[in-house]
Amino acid sequence: MPKPTIDVIIPAYNAQDFIVQAIDSVRWQTYPASVIVVDDGSTDLTAERVKNAFGTDGSVRYVNKQNGGLSSARNRGIAESTAEFIAFLDADDVWLPHKLSEQMEIFQKSKDPKLGVVYCGYETIDQLGHIVSNHSRFSMKPSLRGDVSDQLLCGNYIAGSGSAVLARRECFETAGGFDEVLPSCEDWDMWLRLSRSYHFDFVEKPLVQIRRHALNMNRDRYRMSAGTILFCNKWATEASKRPGALEVWSREHAVAIVGAVIRDFPRTGLYRSITSSMSPQLKRLALRQSPQITFGLLAALVQKMLRR
Predict the structure, then answer these.
(1) CA of 194: how far to CAs of 89, 158, 295, in Å?
(2) What pLDDT, on the 0 to 100 scale, is given for residue 250?
(3) Cα dihedral 201, 193, 116, 19 in deg (nearest 10)
(4) DSSP letters along 206-241, please?
(5) Of the chain's two ends, which shows fewer C-beta atoms within 10 Å, N or C?
(6) 301 Cβ neighbours under 8 A, 6+ residues apart
């Protein structure tokens, strides 16, 4: 029987330095896949690099769009895709050759009718491709399978990057696309929405290399902090319904957000009037920690980001 098809969506914005390596790591997979490069309005040589290297390769498709952010590019790729499975690869990351094969083996052997997502382990590399062994943020090993919705509400334990995920196409038809309002945490938001209807599994091996370099989006602390507060505002209602998640949010997330605000944002205006865009649940979570400052800081941050 023919193998199930896979489309690999690579969102790219000013990715000239690494885009060829990323695409090559898909072409070298032991399981065949097609590539959809979604150029999110690059102003560098991304388009030329892709066309010069893969212009005659029928398995690599280049799509150009107006700049709209990472989620917008991924959503365009999903819309362009026709395969049974969809994988994501950030333009500065690379895959090891057996990545797709080992994930598809999990799908093919599983007896779980609700299995929709298989992720994998990963390791960190530097700008030159050397493995970075002391990057603690990316030392987490895969551990969650089955119904992971409760655990996911407590933290993004699936992957440090969308590059580690392979999912059935139907998952995105059910859950919808990535939230284009979120400047960060968009992957965590997506995995949570998928976990409402589908189960997860994993390959423990590190089959993805996540590249850390000066231009990484997560080096932009302003956008990362903004994404965190908007994500928490979005999911506070759900967290309030689950005691385990509520405890974690009250103990960790509110404090982390306040720290991010103090660290990453100007203090001027942080005590201005409260905006109605904050959910009541997030207000209560915030007030459990530092009632004198948390509420004002969170409200002002949401206000700033909604005006951005």
Answers:
(1) 18, 12, 31
(2) 64
(3) -80
(4) EEEEEEP-TT-GGG-HHHHHHHHHHHHHHHHHHHHT
(5) N
(6) 225, 226, 229, 257, 261, 265, 270
Contacts of 287 (CB under 8 A, 6+ apart): 294, 295
Distance of CA 239 to CAs 105, 121, 138, 233, 275, Å?
34, 27, 25, 10, 21
Place of tokens 């979570």: 285
Residue 85 is given by DSSP the state: E
**The architecture CATH gives domain 6-217:** Alpha-Beta Complex (3.90)
DSSP 91: T
Domain with CATH 3.90.550.10 in the chain: 6-217
Q: Which two tokens stand for residue 51?
A: 């066309």
pTM score above 0.90: no
Residue identified by tokens 């509400």 is 153
d(CA 222, CA 202): 32
pLDDT (mean) for 271-287: 51
